[in-house]
High-affinity zinc uptake system protein ZnuA (Aeromonas lusitana), 301 residues
Amino acid sequence: MRILTLITALLVVSLPVRALEVLTTIKPLGFIAAAITDGVSEPKVLLPTGASPHDFALRPSDIRSINEADLVVWVGPELEGFMAKPLAQHPHVLTLTKVPGMPLFDYSKQAGHEEHADEDHDHDGHEGHHHEGVDPHIWLGPTQALVIAQALSESLSAQDPANAERYRANLLAFKAKVEAKDKVIAGQMKAVNQKGYFVFHEAYGYWERHYGMSSKGHFTVSPERRPGAKTLVEIRKALEEKQASCIYAEPQFSPAVIESVARNTGAKVLLLDEVGEQVPLGPDGYPQFMQQLADAFAECR
Ligand SMILES: [Zn+2]
């Protein structure tokens, strides 16, 4: 009897278990997932390089990847609306905007918004200044990234208790790395955070509040919406008056309008990438992504 129990126990232990497969929509969530699953499995990222979560359309192969994944991680319907339908039937979904304790900001409550609306006198809505609802760009805030990592560690531990210790240890390691990187970047941002700049779309609020940046605004609330003529005139004026010295384009969207607004103003055209296309997917991806963003902001001197 004893021996039989022992043999059974050995069998259970040595049984090959398929590693849990995590699928994230965008790469920065993949960076966080790779840190938490380090040593257990490697996450996959749904969106290919060059794609934007703001205007993505699922292909049949994407639907297959979603169905095959053991856990799907997305920001939420505020960002990846295209995921709502395929995820409705999925048994294991982590919706980050629904995570308890996630610090979320509402676009309409941001400083400068009312001011903008007053100045604007534009009530037809085409300028796109009146952005409402939750800002879904939570992966761009270091505080939010830690909450994402914690939620991921908890979801994975519940779904895969055999590796719970590992997920917890990975969470602690991730936290230590992000906090160390945050300290370095806070110093780096202090040197440049008085400089005015414009971003292409309203994506960087979580980062900007965290590091006290001096954004002067954006071309468009969301990249799939074209910048309004009135906005372009305002930005041009701000550049001519030297209220801002840089404008940030994005690798996923490079409208000619950015270059033309900057022309002959002396403003620098720089690049910010909200999804970290150039950063390799791996357990240290997130701190590298933070550094890449910091270096882009630091270029505006
Ligand atoms: Zn965005």
User: Anything to note?
Assistant: The pocket of zinc ion is lined by residues 54, 137, 201, 203, 274 (CB under 6 Å). The chain has eleven helices and eight strands.
